[in-house]
Design a protein that fits this description.
The complex is a heterodimer.
Chain A: E1 2-3, H1 5-11, H2 16-23, H3 27-34, H4 42-52, H5 56-59, E2 60-61
Antiparallel strand pairs in A: 1-2
Chain B: H1 3-13, H2 15-38, H3 48-56, H4 59-75, H5 78-107, H6 115-120, H7 122-141
Helix pairs in contact in B: 1-2, 2-4, 5-7
Classes of the chains: A mainly alpha, B mainly alpha.
Chain lengths: 65, 142
C-alpha cells in the first residue's frame, strides 16, 4: 500500500511525534506507515483520513502490479 | 532504529509504556529478593508443605510481571503490538525448537542435563529470545 502521509504531515508542519499525538499512536507507528513498512488497520486509516479531512482513498492506494 | 533507541523512546513516550515500567519493576525486585533470600532456605526446612510453598514463592511475583506484560501488549498501539507479538512468536519457536532438539539428545543419552535447571531456564530463555528477536523484527521495519 502506498500512502501520502508524510506529504500531508509536512504540509501541516507537524513532526512525526506531533502526528502520533493527534492519532494516539507511537512515533514509531507513524514512521512505519510513512515508510510503507506497515499498513494501518482500517480504523486507524479512517482516523488518519478524518484528521486530514480527506477521503481515505486519496491518502492510501494499493501498489500497482 | 536499534533496540536501545527503540527502548528509550518506547519507555518514555506513552502512558501505557510508563505504566508497564511501574508495574514491572516492583514484582521483579520481589522476585530477586525471593530467589536470593528465601529460596535458599528450602534446604534447611523440614516440612514438605513449607518447602513446596518456599519453592513456588518466586513464581508469585512473576505472575505480576506476566500481567504487566499482557497489559502493555493489549494496550499498545497496533504497530507496537505487532512488533511485540512477532518477537514473542520468533522467540517461542526458537526456544521450543532448541528444547525439542535437546530432548532428543537426552533421549539418546548423548547429553545429561539436570531436569530442574532445564525447566527453570525456559522462561529466562524465552525472555532473552524475545530481546534478540526484537532486534531482528525492528530491523525488518526500519
Amino acid at each position: 500500500m502506498r500512502n501520502r502521509l508524510r506529504d500531508l504531515r509536512e504540509r501541516h508542519e507537524w513532526s512525526q511525534g506531533d502526528l502520533a499525538g493527534h492519532l494516539d499512536v507511537s512515533r514509531q507507528t507513524v514512521n512505519a506507515i510513512e515508510t510503507g513498512k506497515y499498513d494501518p488497520s482500517l480504523p486507524l486509516a479512517f482516523r488518519i483520513a478524518k484528521l486530514f479531512r480527506q477521503p481515505i482513498e486519496s491518502i492510501f492506494e494499493p501498489e500497482k502490479d | 532504529m536499534n533496540v536501545t533507541q527503540w527502548w528509550q523512546e518506547w519507555s518514555s513516550n506513552r502512558p501505557v509504556n510508563r505504566r508497564y515500567l511501574r508495574e514491572f519493576w516492583p514484582p521483579m525486585l520481589a522476585y530477586v529478593v525471593l530467589v536470593f533470600f528465601v529460596f535458599p532456605v528450602v534446604d534447611v526446612v523440614a516440612s514438605p508443605v513449607l518447602k513446596a510453598v518456599l519453592c513456588v514463592a518466586p513464581v508469585i511475583p512473576i505472575l505480576f510481571v506476566m500481567r504487566a506484560g499482557v497489559r502493555v501488549i493489549r494496550d499498545s498501539d497496533e504497530f507496537q503490538r505487532r512488533v511485540h507479538l512477532e518477537a514473542i512468536a520468533i522467540s517461542a519457536m526458537g526456544v521450543g525448537t532448541a528444547y525439542f532438539a535437546l530432548g532428543f539428545l537426552v533421549f539418546a543419552k548423548l547429553v545429561a542435563v539436570p531436569a530442574g535447571l532445564v525447566l527453570v531456564m525456559i522462561l529466562p530463555m524465552l525472555s532473552a529470545g524475545y530481546g534478540v528477536s526484537l532486534a531482528f523484527v525492528l530491523r525488518h521495519y526500519r
